[in-house]
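look at this fold:
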Amino acid sequence: MAKIVLYMTVSLDGYVAGPDDSVDAPMGIGGFRLFNWLDRRNDPGPSGQVYAEAMATRAVIAGRRTYELAGRWQGDHHDGVPIFVLTHDVPDEAPPGSVRYVTDAAECAAQALLRAGELDEMELHVVPVLLGAGRRLFDHLPAEVVELEQVRQLTTPDVTHLHYRVHRP
């Protein structure tokens, strides 16, 4: 059975985008700082290793807002693997490339998967910066404990890659 893994880059204070994100500023104020570690994605070492692992996935799940703010990735985010975009309203126009729109949050949204007990693992790329405001990764989780087991930590000066296994009750 395939594992469902969340790959996400976050600031040390838990933000995945800075404040005031929009089509004109997709990562918000200061948010592009989160992705400086990708400058080393093709290098040997920790960042190259985790980037290769992320690119080896067999599908990508994204929210519609992320998808739109990212310029729709020109229809291809991961070398042609299927991209499932969670949306409330499916547009009339066909999506580009390998993109498919879906409307069931339990199947797709990373936070919904965690809440529904469907998320198996998380790879968090923690960047040593405090954005102070913006869009948080786990802003809307219910008030219940989710136990995680750290299975790997890889560190560079730019980022700490933390891999967790999600424990289910």
